[in-house]
Amino acid sequence: MSQIYNRVALIGLGLIASSMFHAIKRAGLAGEVTGYARSEETRDTAREIGLCDRVCDSAVEAVEGADLVVLCVPVGVMGAVAAEIAPALKPGATVSDVGSVKAQVIAAVAPHLPDGVHFVPAHPVAGTEHSGPRSGFAELFDNRWTLIVPPPGSDRSAVERVEALWQGMGALTDEMDAEHHDLVLAVTSHAPHLIAYTMVGVADDLRRVTDTEVIKYSAAGFRDFTRIAASDPTMWRDVFLNNKEATLEILGRFTEELFALQRAIRTGDGDHLHAYFTRTRAIRRGIIEAGQDTDAPNFGRSNRG
Amino acid sequence: MSQIYNRVALIGLGLIASSMFHAIKRAGLAGEVTGYARSEETRDTAREIGLCDRVCDSAVEAVEGADLVVLCVPVGVMGAVAAEIAPALKPGATVSDVGSVKAQVIAAVAPHLPDGVHFVPAHPVAGTEHSGPRSGFAELFDNRWTLIVPPPGSDRSAVERVEALWQGMGALTDEMDAEHHDLVLAVTSHAPHLIAYTMVGVADDLRRVTDTEVIKYSAAGFRDFTRIAASDPTMWRDVFLNNKEATLEILGRFTEELFALQRAIRTGDGDHLHAYFTRTRAIRRGIIEAGQDTDAPNFGRSNRG
Question: I want to staple B154 with a disulfide (CB 3.0 to 4.6 A). Which of A257, B150, B201, B277 is the partner?
């Protein structure tokens, strides 16, 4: 793979940025990768583990001379970071981001960017429940989708370079408009996360069942919820506050369906339940065929010898 | 490990029974294991793959002379199977089961059993989303909990032999009364399954987001729900119909909490969300420390190189 950008700046050094660094290096996609994190502790860790070619003590320093600046900070602070770096951006540079929400991020970031700077929002649909500079790894994006969400009228060559970078990092790419992105992600990610957080919270609250019991008997389904519910609290708070409409819409539909199934349980309508559960199996099959998960039992957890 | 039973009969040859057979053989826990499944196709498969030392064409034939009979059928048919085999049970034999619900199973099975036959209900808290005679493997129960739920006044030596069998198959064991078992499992398994089924159903229903999109972008959380929602429909229909009260109680609390979080999103109460999400992380940590899941990102799915 050949170099796509001379210099890339990563602002925020968590799971996604650290994985990007390793994936960029693996494929030789950039001449230099600079990095900045607000917390001094994170910057020290980054220097210690060799995360980024150069760790800077300010966002402005990190973006100076960069051809691509990627905002890898929680969705709620994207606008403030954009305002801070705007004066230091190189003419002709591209700004991108990795936020899980797009419409609000575009609204928050775009007004700050000077003329002649391109804005190409992106969202790698990949992650783990871990966070911080040590959590990244080069393979995170391999065979996972990254959605490119260019605002109308975007410069095509700038968009295609960002796509090429993601493909170079191992990702599949698609383009989508911001509103549709936010609805799709409300279904595939935001609502499931809120539901998982809720169920884990209920288990923790219930006095008649101890936390020890919940933990010991979690293999029966609950542990998959806890993985989701262990994700970064700040990131997720910002996701929900910034994709409010779509998330609430999906949760509304979810509650409606849940009530219908609860009613079937209460009235003993076994046929309704069986038909519903049979239908949901097909989606799982589609995900495995699309290569987005493994068919190994329990995701291939180690019990399978 | 030495032999615990001379002859064990497995009635129903799905994931749990086939895993039991392999685990029993691995440790030499029984002299002979007979098996029976209602479907001729399943019996043929079992014979073809060497599942059970002897596959019988009737449940009565399978249980004749058995020291332990384990009912591995959906919860809804436990009573009918018990009635069928009761006349053929050897005096002094033990009947057990592996159902995910205990109070209703005890109520359905116990009245059919003749005097002098022991009844020791059990529930291995382990599973995968796969089902059928080919899905079993010897390691399924390793380091997972099996709950033994003896009715009051049970013969202690019969109880301890069942416990020893499960420990021999690699499981950790605990005793619990039926009512508490059903509440604990409603939290750790039954409610999470219904919620996962519901969310997958909502995604499938939504016209504005295609199934292809849901499948492609499932890595963002949704795929964990689909694994749970791919479990056997008949088994789960029976679980919900037979653990109605506890499941509906937990779902009621879940809905209440979900509404509180939805309200926090609507009103923009970020502090409430952040505090809630921080609390749920601790439970995940407990599950990893208790050895009930892996700390590898994404459950160690293959992306982690």
Answer: B150
Are the beta carbons of A129 and B203 separated by less than 8 Å?
Answer: no
**Residues 267-296 in B contacting A (C-alpha not used; CB under 8 Å):** 268, 270, 273-274, 276-281, 283-287, 290, 292-294
- Chain-centre distance for alpha carbon A303: 29
Q: Which of A216, A231, A271, A301 to mutate to test the interface with B (most CBs of B within 10 A)?
A: A216
ipTM field: 0.89
Burial class (CB in 10 A: 0-12, 13-18, 19+), B105: buried
Q: How many helices (H) and strands (E) does chain A have?
A: 13, 9
Contact yes or no for B203 and A188 at CB 8 A = yes
Domain boundaries, chain B: 5-176, 180-268
Q: Which residue has the higher pLDDT, A229 or B305?
A: A229
- Which residue in A128, A194, A217 is closest to B188 by CB distance? A217
- Residue of A19, A64, A57 whose CA lies nearest to A37: A57
- pLDDT < 50: residue spans in chain B: 304-305
Point out the least confidently predicted range of A184-193, A254-263, B68-77, B228-237: B228-237
Are the beta carbons of B56 and B7 closer than 8 angstroms?
Answer: no
Subunit contact B184:A217, Cβ cutoff 8 A: yes
Q: Give percent of chain A above pLDDT 70.
A: 97
Query: Mapping DSSP to helix (H, G, I), strand (E, B) and coil, where does residue A222 land?
Result: helix
Q: Which of B107, B109, B43 is nearest to B71 (CA)?
A: B109
| Chain B interface includes A266 (CB < 8 A) | yes
pTM: 0.90
Task: Show the tokens assigned to B137.
Answer: 């493997």
Please determine, for residue A206, whether its predicted confidence score (pLDDT) is greater than 80: yes
Amino acid at A60: V
Q: Name the residue of chain A whose CA is nearest to B145's CA.
A: A217
Structure tokens at A78: 């994207």
Q: Is B184 on the interface with A (CB under 8 A)?
A: yes
- A180-268 CATH fold: 6-phosphogluconate dehydrogenase C-terminal fold (1.10.3660)
CB B125 within 8 A of CB B146: yes
Tell me the C-alpha to C-alpha distance, in Å, between residue B1 and each of B23, B28, B263: 12, 7, 56
CATH number of A5-176: 3.40.50.720
Residues of A in contact with B280 (CB under 8 A): 197, 200-201, 204, 226, 229-230
CB atoms within 10 A of CB B156: 8
Q: Return the structure tokens found at B133.
A: 């005679």
Residues 55-114 of B with CB under 8 A from A: 76, 100
